[in-house]
Amino acid sequence: MHKLLADEDFPFPSVKQLRNLGVDIITLQNLGLVGIGLQDASVLELSIKLKRAILTCNRRDFIKLHKQSSEHFGIIVCTRNPDHKTLAESIYSVLESESIIENSLLKVYRPS
Predict the structure, then answer these.
(1) Can you give the pTM of this predicted structure?
(2) Per residue, what are the HEC states of the chain?
(3) Which of 14, 44, 91, 111 is 20 to 30 A from 81 in CA distance terms?
(4) Degrees (nearest 5) of the Cα angle 74, 80, 81?
């Protein structure tokens, strides 16, 4: 299974659900890196250093970063979904369907 780093804006209840599904995921909170104004490019650099795909709801900025360089361990952008369990299950489904996410931009949308 893929290793993930959840961005500061990603909802923690969904992180917990992903962990319950067996996903190896850490958060910026786990690393003590919240509330310090860490720039998105720095978050992406950190995920590269940790060899983890970034998981974020900050779609616009991380799509822009992917367009600048696809040299990363994957970027998963999500629409906000108050149903944290459904969000986690949607992400898990995408992860299971993708054998390689390195250098990829994956999009997970909230069901309409």
Answers:
(1) 0.93
(2) CCEEEECCCCCHHHHHHHHHCCCEEEECCCCCCCCCCCCHHHHHHHHHHCCCEEEECCHHHHHHHHHHCCCCCCEEEECCCCCHHHHHHHHHHHHHHCCCCCCCEEEECCCC
(3) 44
(4) 115
The pair phi, psi for residue 38, each rounded to 5°, is -65, 125
Task: Report how far residue 16's alpha carbon sits from residue 21's, in angstroms, rounded to the nearest whole number.
Answer: 9
pLDDT range class, residue 65, cuts 50, 70, 90: very high
Distance CA 85, CA 103 (A): 27
The 10s digit of each residue's pLDDT in 22-39 is 999 999 999 988 778 789
Contact of 37 with 28, CB cutoff 8 Å:
no
